[in-house]
Amino acid sequence: MTTADFLSAPRPDPERIDGLDLDGPERFFNRELSWLAFNWRVLEEAENPRVPLLERLRFISISATNLDEFYTVRVAGLRELAKAGTTTPAADGLTPVEQLVLIDADARRLMQTQQKVWSQLRREMEAEGIHILKRSGLTKADRKYLSELFLSQVFPVLSPLAVDPAHPFPFIPNTGFALALQLQGGSKDGTLSALLPIPNQINRFIALPSEPGQHRFLPLEQLLLIHLDSLFPGYKLTGSCAFRVLRDSDLEVEEEAEDLVREFEVALKRRRRGEVVRMKISAGAPDSLQRLITDQLELGPDEVIEIKGMIGVGDLGELVVDSRADLLWPSYTPRVPERVQDHDGDMFGAIRQKDMLLHHPYETFDMVVRFLQQAARDPNVLAIKQTLYRTSTDSPIVAALCEAAEEGKSVTALVELKARFDEAANIRQSRHLERAGAHVVYGFINYKTHAKISSVVRREGDRLVTYTHYGTGNYHPITARIYTDLSLFTCDAALGRDATKVFNYLSGYAQPEGLEKLCISPLTLKQRLLDGLKGEAAHAKAGRPAMVWAKLNSLIDAEVIDALYAASQAGVQIDLVLRGICGVRPGISGLSDNIRVKSIVGRFLEHSRIVCFGDGHGLPSPKARVYISSADWMGRNLNRRVETLVECENPTVKAQIVDQIMAANLADEASSWVLHPDGRYARSLPENGEPLFSCHQFFMENPSLSGRGSAGAADVPRLAQRPKPAHDAPL
Q1: pLDDT tens-digit profile of 37-91?
Q2: Which of the residues 450, 476, 607, 676 is marked catalytic?
Q3: How far apart are CA 523 and CA 510, in angstroms?
Q4: CA-to-CA separations, 373 to 452, 465, 518, 692, in angstroms, rounded
Q5: CATH of 128-327, one of 3.30.1840.10, 3.10.150.10, 3.40.1000.10, 1.10.10.10
Q6: How does pLDDT run across 497-521, given as a tens digit for each residue?
Q7: How far apart are CA 303 and CA 313, in angstroms?
Q8: Residue 411 and which of 46, 644, 666, 715 are 20 to 30 A apart at CA?
Q9: What is the residue extent of each domain of the chain?
Q10: At residue 395, does pLDDT exceed 70?
Q11: Which residues are CB-contacts of 477 (< 8 A; sequence separation ≥ 6)?
Q12: For the structural domain made of 338-513, what CATH number should be given?
C-alpha cells in the first residue's frame, strides 16, 4: 500500500451512540478514567508475549508506580473537592464524588489484575532460573549468609516500634511500607503490638548466592520475619501483616513567599505528612492489627485495599537482571548524527550549515550535552541561557552551565521548582549553579515553566550569532534514553530573538512582544492551535485538501476538543496519536466522523509533541505547516504554564517530521491501540504469524533523515499502511 492509498483509504463508518447529546458533556471522555485506561495499556504490555520477559516485569512495575502517583496527586485532589462539598462537574459531567466512585472500582480491578499478571510472570521467571523465595525455601547455607547480611547491613538501620499508651503510633511517610506485628511475651509481659517500618534505603529484594545461570531473591520482609528475635528478644510472633500508605503529595505554596526556595523546602516536608489517600494491607491480616492501623491512620473502608499477593508491585523493577540479556530488549546504541561527524564533532559548525532536528533516543541526547559543553569551553561564547524543568542528579547539563559560569561567561538558568516530585533535586541544582556564579531565576509563582529552551550567544567576527535549542523533552540524559523526543538546533536569527524575549519574560515578567516564529503559552500558543484548526476547516469548506496530524501525550482541553469536532464536521481529516489521556470521542456520527485516535505504548515512551496542518495542500506535503512543542493540549499546559510551539520551516526538517516520524507513528501496528467511540481501546494482533510493523523498530534500524540530503515518502517503506482491523482488548 502506498502513501496515497493510505491517505485515500475510507475511514471506519461512524458510529451512532443512542442518547448521546452532541452538545452535552457526553461528548468528552473523563480525564481520570482515560488516564486509568492508559495505565491498563501499560499493564497489558506486561502480558504481551512479544515483549521480552524482564521487560514485561518492568511494565508491571511502571503500572504500579504510575498508579501510586495518580492517587497521591489526582485522587487526592478529587478527595479534597469532595470533602469541601464541591458538586461542580468536570467537562464530561461527572462530579468529584461520582468520579471517585468510578475510579475506585476501576483501580481495584487494575490492582487485582496486577497480582494475576505478577503470578504469571513469576512462573515464567522460575522457568528461566529466576526465583523469588520464601522463608521455607531457604537452605542452611542461605540462612547463614542472610544472618551475616542482616546483622551488618540491615539491623543497624531498623527501628522496631512498640505501639502502646507509652509509645504512640508512629508517622508512616508517603509510600511508607511496614510490617505490623502481634507478639506474645512471657507470662508477665503479655501481648505486644508493634510496627517495623521497612527503610526504603534498602533494596526490597535480596540477592542470594546462586549457581551459574540462576538468580535467587528473598523479599526483605521475609528476612525481617526470620530475625524478629533480634528485634524483639523474648517475644514470639503470633500474627503479622504488611501495609503500605500513600499520602496527598500535591504542593501548595504561598503566592507571596519571600524566599521561594525556603518555602518549597517547607512544602516538601508538608508533603511527607499529607493525609493518607490509600492504604494497601495484606489480605487475611489479624483483625486487631487491621483495626489498629486503620483507626490510627483514620481510614474508612473505601481507602483500604486488601491485597492477596504482593504489596508494593512497583518494587518489582529491582528484579530486572541486567545479566540476562536474553530476557531484555536487544541492546541499542543511539546514533551520532552524520552532519556532526562531518564537522568533526563541532556542533556550531553543524548547526550553521542548516537547521538540525534530532530524534531521540534513536539519535543520541549526548549532542544536547555536547552543545552546552562546547559552549562552556568556547572562548567566543559570551552568554548561555537555559531552562531546567527536570534533569538527572549528576547532570552534565548543570555541570556544563557551572563550568561556563566559572569561566566568566554570563549564565542564566531558569530552574522550575514546581516540577512535581523533582522539587528537592531542583533546589539542590539551583544552589550548585548559584555557587558557580550563574544567575538563577525561578520564573513565575502562578505558572510552571515547562518550556525547553537553550540559547547560546557566540561572537563570530564582528557580529553576535545566537544558537538555539528547542526541545519537546526535558534536559535529562537518563530519561532521554527511553523517551522519544525531538531536538531542534538552529541559528535562525528570528528564533534566537524569540528565545531571548522568552527568557526576558521569565526573568523580568515583561510580556514578549513581536514574537516572530514562536508561540508561547499562556499568551499565544492556544490561539495558534485554534486558528490552525479553523484554517483547516475553511480549506475543507472551500473544497481544498484539509488535514491535521498531531502527536501528543494528552489531549483534554475542552475548547481545543470542540475546535477539533468543528473541523471534523467541516470535513477535515484528523489523525491523532495520543499516548495517554484523551478526552476526544472519535468516530461519532455527526460529531467526529473524521477523527481517528490511536495510542502507542511500547519499548520507548512516546513523549514528543508535534502538530502538522495541511494548510490547503493535505498531508504529507512540503507546503504543510509543521510545529514541535513542549505542550500537551491540556488546560494546565495551555493556560497555566510557560510552553513553546516552534514552527519548523526548513524543508529537510519538515520532511523528517511529516514523511518519517508522523508517518511511522500513524502506520505502527505492533505497539498501537485504537480508540473506539465508546471508550474501548483495541490493539492490532498478528494474523497468520505475520509480523506487525513497529515504528520503534523501524527507527532503530534505519538511519535518520536529518543527517544529510532530503527525505521523501519513498525513504520510508510501508509507513503508510493502515493498521489491520483491531481486535477487542481485554480491558
Answers
A1: 999 999 999 999 999 999 999 999 999 999 999 999 899 888 888 888 989 999 9
A2: 450
A3: 12
A4: 17, 17, 26, 41
A5: 3.30.1840.10
A6: 999 999 999 888 788 989 999 999 9
A7: 18
A8: 644
A9: 3-27+520-728, 128-327, 338-513
A10: yes
A11: 365, 366, 369, 391, 392, 395, 396, 397
A12: 3.30.870.10
Which helix (H) or strand (E) element contains residue 471?
strand 463-471
| Cα–Cα distance measured from residue 488 to residue 412, given in angstroms and rounded to the nearest whole number | 20
Q: Rounded CA gap, 201 and 225, in Å?
A: 18
Residues 316 and 217: beta-carbon distance below 8 Å = no
| Comparison of pLDDT for 442 and 349, the residue scoring more | 349
Which residues fall within 8 angstroms of residue 408, CB to CB, at 6 or more apart? Answer: none
Is residue 188 scored above 90 in pLDDT? no
The CATH T-level fold of domain 3-27+520-728 is Endonuclease; Chain A (3.30.870)
622 contacts 655 by C-beta, under 8 angstroms: yes
Residue 307, classified by CB atoms within 10 Å of its CB into exposed (0-12), middle (13-18) or buried (19+), is buried
Average pLDDT of the chain is: 88
Question: What would the mean pLDDT of 605-621 be, rounded to a whole number?
Answer: 95
Q: Where are the beta strands (DSSP E) in 631-723?
A: 641-648, 672-675, 681-683
Taking the model in full, what pTM does it have? 0.90
pLDDT at 3 over 50: no
Cβ–Cβ < 8 Å for 449, 474: no
CA atoms within 13 A on the CB side of 1: 14
Determine how β-strand 410-415 pairs with β-strand 439-441: parallel
Q: What's the sign of the alpha-carbon dihedral 315, 319, 321, 326?
A: negative
Q: Which three cell numbers stand for residue 532?
A: 490552525
CB contact at 8 A, 533 and 567: yes
Angle at 170 between CA 62 and CA 175, to 5 degrees: 5
Q: Which residues pair with 518 in a beta bridge?
A: 646
450 assigned to active site: yes
Nearest by Cα to 692 from 659, 726, 723 = 723
Q: DSSP per residue over 116-159, as a string? A: HHHHHHHHHHHHTTEEE--GGG--HHHHHHHHHHIIIIIGGG--
* Strand pairing report for 483-490 and 605-606: parallel
Euclidean distance between CA atoms 105 and 256, whole angstroms: 40
Q: How many residues does the chain have?
A: 731
Same fold, 3-27+520-728 and 128-327: no
For residues 585 and 576, give the distance between their C-alpha atoms in angstroms, rounded to a whole number. 12
- Cis bond leading into 337, ω under 30°? no
How large is the C-alpha radius of gyration of the chain?
27
| Backbone dihedral angles phi then psi of residue 11, each to the nearest 5 degrees | -80, 160
